């Protein structure tokens, strides 16, 4: 087999692979996109280290578990030392109807790979719930 024929075979295989993958990429559930956008919008507020604004922007379940004072303390002791957010990419989105200690509902659990100024390798787990047609953050954990 000549080098030219080998290159053509490799190129054909790559194009074939892209054609197979393309429908899967287009088939993402629109709810996942909406939930990811809501999580990212909330994270942008949290990235400003504005505990009061991020508390108000969170869903009612978030606010029912944490007082504003406890959230301010968490932002000060956990998030502030990490420094500025440098890069964030979504790596996993999972739908659920149940969350621990929560009533059944429509939830999405989103995992982000995040690089902070002082912690370049971390993950953020954001739980969102559809409440009255809108996705709202109900949980947030940094690992």
The ordered H/E elements are: HHHHHEEEE
CATH architecture: Roll
Q: How many domains, in number, for the residues?
A: 1
Across the major sheet, the strand order is: 1-2-3-4
How would you classify the helix and strand content by structural class? alpha+beta
Q: Tell me what portion of residues adopts beta-strand conformation.
A: 25-35%
Q: If helices are DSSP runs of H or I spanning 4 or more residues, what is the number of helices?
A: 5
Shape: globular
Radius of gyration: 20 Å
Structure report:
This protein has 143 residues and is of the alpha+beta class. It is built from five helices and four strands; from the N terminus they run αααααββββ. β2 and β3 form a beta hairpin. α2 (30-47) runs antiparallel to α3 (51-57). The model is unreliable at 3-26 (pLDDT under 50).
């Amino acid at each position: 087999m000549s080098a030219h024929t080998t290159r053509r075979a490799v190129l054909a295989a790559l194009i074939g692979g892209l054609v197979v993958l393309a429908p899967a990429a287009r088939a993402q559930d629109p709810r996942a996109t909406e939930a990811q956008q809501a999580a990212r919008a909330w994270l942008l507020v949290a990235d400003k280290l504005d505990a009061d604004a991020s508390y108000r922007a969170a869903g009612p379940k978030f606010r029912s578990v944490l007082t504003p004072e406890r959230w301010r303390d968490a932002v000060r002791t956990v998030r502030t030392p990490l420094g500025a957010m440098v890069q964030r990419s979504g790596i996993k989105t999972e739908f659920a109807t149940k969350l621990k200690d929560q009533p059944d509902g429509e939830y999405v659990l989103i995992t982000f790979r995040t690089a902070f100024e002082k912690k370049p390798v971390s993950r953020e787990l954001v739980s969102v719930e559809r409440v009255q047609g809108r996705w709202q953050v109900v949980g947030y954990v940094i690992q």
